[in-house]
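Appendix B, Record 12. Input sequence as logged:
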Amino acid sequence: MSINKFMMGENRMADTSTAKDLTDRELLLKAQEICCETLRLFCIHFNQQLPLADLPGARVSILLATAAKAINTSNAIRMLCVERPYFEEMNVLVRSLIESIINGAFIQIANDDEVNAFMHFDSISLSKALRIAQGVSPEAVNILSEKLRNDFRAHADSIKAMLGKDEKEFNWTRLDVASRGDRIDKVLGVPAFAPVCKVLFPSLHVFVHGGYRSLETYMPTEGGRVLLQNLAFQADGALHTMDVALLTLCITMNQLAVDRLDNWLSVIQSLLAAYAERVKVSAPTTVAAEGF
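Logged structural output:
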């Protein structure tokens, strides 16, 4: 990495001195911006290792793709944080972001069989979906040419044979999210994933699966009022969770990199710590907020 890139880091350090002048929302958006810049620098660093043959190259490619997707997804989440924030939809994307980051980090420390399973298991899942669709709606499946269907079946069968897995398998790995996080932390030597995997990730299930909490904002209220203060607080919560996930990916890449960016990580952590201190005294007192 060039010295100019590191000088940019020094400028970011100066940014934290003005944190007190930023609103809660601005603090969180600033943290996201620095996370994304940090990830871009790491991508430049790891791109220099390519091309690598076979699984080593696949691991690096997956890491780079995870970082690029994290930047893109976090920018999409920002776009939903408008005057009446779509905090429920923000949380759906945050959960997807977290699982993508967990998988991308896990692949860096996984064994070769796990890497192969991650890369190819989607074919088995699609094969199962097509088999079920054939029984439920054969006319829809028959839109695909017979040759295409036969070719895909042959491909899926070859994947099953290579991985030693079949359609009874639920996922590419038998480890749940928490177990994956524990393994990453143990190998990298930094307890970064435990809170993400065991607290933040499961707390977002309700938004993906349409649970009661995801409907609270739309429940009829006296006078039909929407508590805008609570909506803003919920949106900030989604941004904070997003930032923590991005920081976790930055920590992973920092542990794996030759050129470390410890100062950049310190800036991000200081911004998130400043937000956390504010929340202790500024969280809105509403029925929804007290329900957590």
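Residues 111-172 form one domain.
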